[in-house]
TrEMBL record:
This is Xanthine phosphoribosyltransferase. Keywords: Cytoplasm, Glycosyltransferase, Purine salvage, Transferase. Pathway: Purine metabolism; XMP biosynthesis via salvage pathway; XMP from xanthine: step 1/1. Converts the preformed base xanthine, a product of nucleic acid breakdown, to xanthosine 5'-monophosphate (XMP), so it can be reused for RNA or DNA synthesis. Belongs to the purine/pyrimidine phosphoribosyltransferase family. Xpt subfamily. Gene3D superfamilies: 3.40.50.2020. Residues 34-157 form the Phosphoribosyltransferase domain. It catalyses: XMP + diphosphate = xanthine + 5-phospho-alpha-D-ribose 1-diphosphate.
Length: 193
């Protein structure tokens, strides 16, 4: 997605060897027009796939997931990282190691929001080692639902997340694929949409 590559080149900051900061338009301040376009592109890719739910993980997956769900006209569910007192019903959980926080947390979705008839599209902001998406797959499978695909806004292809998800038999659609960071420059490779 050329628009997104251009925005990353304009507003993204490389942090060290493996991290990209995109807080000007995605992970803190959110560019809603860009998110809407991202949602439109994901929805176009999965238009014929019979998606019934879009699932993401809080917090930064919510913006692209919401616009994707709106474009597909289905609900969006975000997995919670902290259980709270209103979650009184049955919950589905998975352990997820956070790449950016370097801690493992239990993420959960209340079971009534997913059922065995659901066909789910997972959306997330970044793909690094694949642990967030893998945790969501585990939760969705506990509900007996199908994971149709994983839509990623920014894939860091030099990390093993895509390989892990493909080995689980999942289709990955990344809007931007970063091959490497070289001398503080971003080198892109051909993306999926
Ligand atoms: P994974 O679970 O694939 O290792 O990492 C994906 C999650 O970690 C995403 O949900 C995202 O929040 C965070 N993440 C991974 N890499 C980056 C990065 O380079 N920049 C930012 N801002 N978040 C990242």
């Amino acid at each position: 997605m050329k628009l997104l590559e251009d925005r990353i080149l304009k507003d993204g900051d490389i942090l060290g060897e493996e991290l990209l900061k995109v807080d000007k338009f995605l992970t803190h301040q959110v560019d809603c027009q860009l998110m809407q376009e991202i949602g439109r592109v994901f929805a176009e890719v999965y238009a014929e796939a019979g998606i019934t739910k879009v699932v993401t993980i809080e917090a930064s997956g919510i913006a692209p997931a919401l616009y994707t769900a709106q474009a597909l006209k289905v609900p969006m569910i975000f997995a919670k990282k902290h259980k709270n007192m209103t979650m009184t019903e049955g919950i589905l959980t998975a352990e997820v190691f956070s790449f950016t926080k370097q801690v493992t947390s239990t993420v959960s979705i209340v079971s009534k929001f997913l059922s065995s008839s659901d066909r789910v599209l997972i959306i997330d902001d970044f793909l690094a080692n694949g642990q967030a998406a893998k945790g969501l797959v585990e939760i969705i499978k506990q509900a007996g639902a199908d994971v149709v695909g994983v839509g990623i806004v920014i894939e860091k292809s030099f990390q093993p997340g895509r390989k892990l998800l493909e080995e689980l038999g999942l289709e990955v659609t990344s809007l931007v694929r970063i091959k490497k960071f070289e001398n503080d420059q971003l080198i892109f490779m051909e993306a999926d949409a």
